[in-house]
Amino acid sequence: MSARDVGTLRVMTYNLRGLREEVDALVDVVRAARPDVLAVQEPPRGPTGRARLRRFAARTGMRVAVGGGGARTTALLVVPHRSVRGAAGIRLPWRLGLTRRGVSTALVDGVRVVVVHLGLRAAERSRHVQLVRRHLLHGDDGPVVVAGDLNERPGGSSWLALRDAAGGLQDAASVAEADLPTFPADVPRVRIDAVLVDERLPVLGARVPDEAAVGVASDHRPLVVDLHLPEP
């Protein structure tokens, strides 16, 4: 993607696999993509998790808008020149034996960005999607973008439920005719990662990076989408 002006918002969704390995490769992938917004799944956790995420953000030229606490399995990084308001990490209901999950959200230059990392079980995905729709996807405080690892192929029930939210969300990759697989990273076969966008945000382009570092940095490939911001 070529250079862009302030009226274009570049959103990247990426499962960082806890920054457990190949951190230099992850940094290279993000720096090459130059996102304005990085929707993170599987950020580092534990006693040093927040500090490690801050260091990663600094290396990529970004800042942590949401990380740790209720965000749990998600985080949100934003470049310094974009405005951020109402940043929050929200815990999702948990059941014994499952991963404790959360959602990251903030208004970035007037766009409500919601980062999700849905579970492996269909019933849990359905419960969490309904809560996200009910509490975060009203569309009454600006256009909406939902980005994350849905752990489900396009056309699945979670995709459909999210696309029906906020007056209708589009699968940016399909709109841009870039519906490429993202998982597994080394030999991708399916796309389980999504950027779903409000129809008030025209999709200018989308791609799944394929440089060498992408195949070793994580078990997912990222999805990068350019959106046109409405006039203020």
Give structural notes.
The protein has 6 helices and 12 strands. The chain is an alpha+beta fold and 232 residues long. The protein has a single domain, classed as Deoxyribonuclease I, Chain A (4-Layer Sandwich), CATH 3.60.10.10. The strands form 2 sheets. The protein has a 6-stranded mixed β-sheet with strand order 3-4-2-1-12-11. The chain has a 6-stranded mixed β-sheet with strand order 5-6-7-8-10-9. Strand 7, helix 3 and strand 8 form a beta-alpha-beta unit. One of its GO terms (molecular function) is endonuclease activity. This is Endonuclease/exonuclease/phosphatase. Pfam families: Exo_endo_phos. Keywords: Endonuclease, Exonuclease, Hydrolase, Nuclease.
Please write out the topology:
Blueprint (H helix, E strand, L loop, with lengths): L7 E8 L7 H11 L3 E5 L7 H11 L3 E4 L7 E5 L5 E8 L10 E7 L2 E7 L4 H15 L7 E6 L7 H7 L5 E3 H4 L17 E6 L4 E5 L6 H4 L5 E6 L4
Parallel strand pairs: 1-2, 7-8
Antiparallel strand pairs: 1-12, 2-4, 3-4, 5-6, 6-7, 8-10, 9-10, 11-12
Protein name: Endonuclease/exonuclease/phosphatase
InterPro entries: Endo/exonu/phosph_ase_sf (IPR036691), Endo/exonuclease/phosphatase (IPR005135)
GO molecular function: endonuclease activity; exonuclease activity
Estimate nothing, just give the exact number of structural domains.
1
Unreliable residue stretches: none
Q: How are the strands of the biggest sheet laid out side by side?
A: 3-4-2-1-12-11
Radius of gyration, in Å, reads 16 Å
Give helix % range.
Answer: 10-25%
Question: What structural class should be given to the helix and strand makeup?
Answer: alpha+beta
Helices, by number, come to 6
Classified in CATH, the superfamily is Endonuclease/exonuclease/phosphatase
- Indicate the mean pLDDT: 93
Number of strands: 12
Order of helices and strands: EHEHEEEEEHEHEHEEHE
By CATH, the topology is Deoxyribonuclease I, Chain A
Biggest β-sheet strands, sense, barrel: 6 strands, mixed
| Top CATH class | Alpha Beta
User: How does CATH name the architecture?
Assistant: 4-Layer Sandwich
Distance, first to last CA: 24 Å
Portion in beta strands: 25-35%
Give the overall shape, derived from the CA principal axes: globular
Pfam families: Exo_endo_phos
Keywords: Endonuclease, Exonuclease, Hydrolase, Nuclease
InterPro entries: Endo/exonu/phosph_ase_sf (IPR036691), Endo/exonuclease/phosphatase (IPR005135)
Organism: Cellulomonas flavigena (strain ATCC 482 / DSM 20109 / BCRC 11376 / JCM 18109 / NBRC 3775 / NCIMB 8073 / NRS 134)
